[in-house]
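The methods section describes the discrete structure representation at length, but only in general terms. Each protein is reduced to its one-letter sequence and a matching series of backbone shape codes. I believe one specimen quoted in the main text would settle the matter. An entry of this sort, consisting of the sequence and the corresponding backbone structure tokens, reads as follows.
***
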Amino acid sequence: MDIYLIKLIIAHLIGDFFLQPGSWVEEKEVKKLKSAKLYLHVAIHIALIFLIFLSFGVWKVALLIGLIHFAIDALKLLLQTKKNARLLFFVDQVLHFISIVAVWHLFYKGSLDISYLKETKTWIFISGALFLTLPTSITMRVIIARWIPDNQPDSPKSLQNAGKYIGILERVLIFVFILTNHFEAVGFLLAAKSIFRFGDLKEAHDLKLTEYVLIGTLLSFGIAIVTAMLTQQLIA
């Protein structure tokens, strides 16, 4: 990757995540375009580009990125509500990175190498990773539906869909670990999950729940391992 693009990305990450306190974000959400913190935030982004490049010769780049950053943030503040705040956060970041790449291309004639998207190996990898998300979650739910234990009135409440997302994350991690030849990390992940689960199962005193969790965990790990090994063979 081009060093100029890396520097622009670093400037953005520092400005948006390290040098923007939560109090600034809250003030901007309340005062919108009247917030002084919005303009200070943009000024910091411009200053960071000068600092990281150690040159005032990049003033055109810094100014253009600052103006685009202001426009994106201002639009986000005007459109943001409690319901769409999470979505707009990701849209905001995607637009910032797109603008950085565009400015980099404009001033430094840079281009991103996306030739890997034409390779069969890339699409095999993507297919394997996607299979381990929702398709595997739905498949597992169908397989173990007959063993789902009844909810007890005094059972602790869990986060909505937490189990599904935990399963997706663990399978994707296993997939990555195996494809990068870090099999020991799979054992570490299984041990870590067992430690966290042990306390809950011990307190529950429910044999059916313990067996249900064990079946789900082993099935999830098994599918992830088989998928990863199959993918490894196909891309070899």
User: Anything to note?
Assistant: The chain has two domains: 3-108, 115-235. The two ends are 25 Å apart (CA to CA). The chain has a mean pLDDT of 89. Residues 207-235 form the longest helix (29 residues).
